[in-house]
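It is worth pausing here to work through a concrete case rather than discussing structure prediction in the abstract. The textbook approach is simple: state the sequence, then state the predicted structure, then interpret. We follow exactly that order.
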Amino acid sequence: MPDNAKPLILLTRPRAQAERFAAALHGQTGGAVEVLIAPLLRIDLMDLPEFPDSAALVFTSENGVAAYAAGGGAPGRRAYCVGDRTAEAAGEAGLQACSAGGAADDLVALIAAEAPACPLVHLHGRHVRGAVVAALRAHGFAITGRVVYDQIALPLAAAARGALLSGQEVLVPLFSPRSAQLFAKAMPDGAKCRPVCISPATRATLPATLGNRAIVAEAPTGAAILKAVARQLSP
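Step two, the predicted structure:
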């Protein structure tokens, strides 16, 4: 990237996650970065359903952990988590958390290797990608899925639309296939940007005009996408 380029980082994650990513990015770059937060999703927590006291929990998002904690979920349960941030949140909620350190396939492999004898409950959002429950059932586990939060789509803010049409270089980190779909749908005609995708599956949901320009993180983790964005900010 040329020395005189001043890219804008457009964050469309739910606000709390976007603010945390922005803080991490500022820490990584020494604060020399312009960030615009314009969420395309809002997380609405739902009531926590009942499930067996003996059950271990499966989380593919920290939002599931937030719903569990907000619903008065008891501490001390075993919690299998897709990644480090989700495991960190589960630990803060008093759960015995372990991280698969990657994607849904890694989570299934972790649980299959540990082979818990107790029932499993996957607490997830209304919109879910990755057949974790089906994959674990195929391994012989007694697992059920429960929806504990909703991901409400939001319109793209006017400030974000203006930035995308301004001619300024705009980097857009995309953290899931659904967020990529929502962003592509919300982009105004004539807008230009460079997506930074957390995974190949996320890039695959973009139209060719965006997908061909997209950068994919080295691993499907928050740390990897942070590194990919920071690399684009280097002279």
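Step three, interpretation. The longest helix spans residues 15-29. The mean pLDDT is 93.
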